[in-house]
Amino acid sequence: MIHRIDLDDDTSELLQAHSNLTGLTVSGLIDRLLSIHLPELHEVLALAATCPELRDEAANLIVSFGPEPLEAGIKRIAPADYRTLGEQFEREMRAPGTARVTH
User: The whole model's pTM is what?
Assistant: First the structure.
């Protein structure tokens, strides 16, 4: 899927300099940089889906991103008993009867 994004001049110049340095395309750089945040972005969507009343606050985590990490923001606005996708996965893996692979 192709998206067109507008960048300010400073960001564009910085990405172009890194593209020249690494040999990666600007698009490839953006993909690599954004991929680091994919788990957190999934967590924000999961919170909005699980707690619809927090949809606006979840959206604000993205709009006002930084300096607070997204996961910290989720913990701040979520109900006390809310479990992130990562926490749910860990809990399921620790459940009795869960097969574990050892090396």
Answer: 0.76
